[in-house]
Amino acid sequence: MAYNLLKGKRGIIFGALDENSIAWKTAERVFEEGGSFVLTNAPVAMRMGKINELAEKTNAQVIPADATSLEDLEKLIDQAQEILGGKLDFVLHSIGMSVNVRKKRHYTDLNYSYSEKGWDVSALSFHKVMQTLYKKDAMNEWGSVVALTYMAAQRVFPDYNDMADNKAYLESIARSFGYFFGKDKNVRVNTISQSPTPTTAGQGVKGFDGFIAYADKMSPLGNATAMDCANYTVTLFSDLTKRVTLQNLYNDGGFSNTGVSQEVMEYFVEK
Questions:
Q1: Distance CA 46, CA 15 (A)
Q2: How many domains does the chain have?
Q3: What is the pLDDT of residue 201?
Q4: Rounded to 10 degrees, what is the CA torsion of 236, 239, 241, 246?
Q5: Average pLDDT over residues 104-127
Q6: Residue 208 within a domain
Q7: Helix (H), strand (E), coil (C) string for 230-241
Q8: Residue 119 vs residues 31, 116, 124, 166, 168: alpha-carbon distances, Å
Q9: What is the pLDDT of residues 224-234, one digit of tens each?
Q10: 71-86 per-residue burial string, b: 16 or more CB within 10 A, e: under 16
């Protein structure tokens, strides 16, 4: 059901790869709510995914951009405003990557050049995106910037590897840059800490099926889906949340505040 929550609003959505992506679901929901946007991803990711299919469904244009490159980001933001006809109202940062995870390097045996690459893509790119938006004065007042994160930023999930560090850094950037974006431009910045979600990228983490099953049994409402996250993001892009900023918002079925669930206790008692 659509409510026209984003009618007339314009933005950029980073990171849609395929129909499993949270960014993909978000683009679909933003379109349903009346928003217009450009889609962007790194050229290598675009070759792997189906972003052009999404663009056709949502009347969006695709602009390839490496989110770690300031030159690419400047061109992206200029072109987005030109295509959409004005300043932006929302931006979704939905990008993350760990070379150490891909190469199966254990957290106690990291390749630091891999770590730096993953940190740049997963976390520092968020600062680069916002700094470019800020310097170009590309956001409308009461605009909204959202990045996706995971609770491994606060708690230990052994196989999440250096992505946990990246997410912790990402959340800090949201607070620190969000302060200045709020004071100077009246722009909101928040992160959504999502349940483990079977995206194409997420399934590359060792033991991911175990993450999902455990979180589902621990959460009073069960795991939040990619569509749940898309719906939550729409509310943060809308005018209904104009004073919500600097927050790390949990969309996890209650997992983050559950010490132990009856189902998990029963599992160990039965053993």
A1: 9
A2: 1
A3: 67
A4: 70
A5: 98
A6: yes
A7: HHHHHHHHCHHH
A8: 31, 5, 6, 5, 10
A9: 999 999 999 99
A10: ebbeebbebbbeebee
Q: Is the pTM of this model over 0.90?
A: yes
- Cα dist from 114 to 23, 101, 165, whole Å: 25, 9, 13
Q: Which residues contact 128 (CB under 8 A, 6 or more apart)?
A: 67, 68, 70, 73
Query: Residues near 123 by Cβ (< 8 Å), separated by ≥ 6?
Result: 166, 167, 169, 170, 173
176 in any annotated domain: yes
In this prediction, residues 5-30 reach a mean pLDDT of 97
Question: What's the chain's average pLDDT?
Answer: 95
| Domain membership flag for residue 190 | yes
What is the tens place of the pLDDT at every residue in 233-269? 999 999 999 999 999 999 999 999 999 999 988 888 8
Residue at 5 is within a domain: no
Determine the structural domain holding residue 113 and report its residue range: 10-270
Residue 58 CB coordination number (10 Å):
21
CA end-to-end span of the chain: 45
Classify 139 in phi/psi space as left (phi over 0), alpha (psi -120 to 50) or beta.
beta
CATH number at residue 104: 3.40.50.720
> Which residue in the block uniquely carries the two structure tokens 């490159």?
69
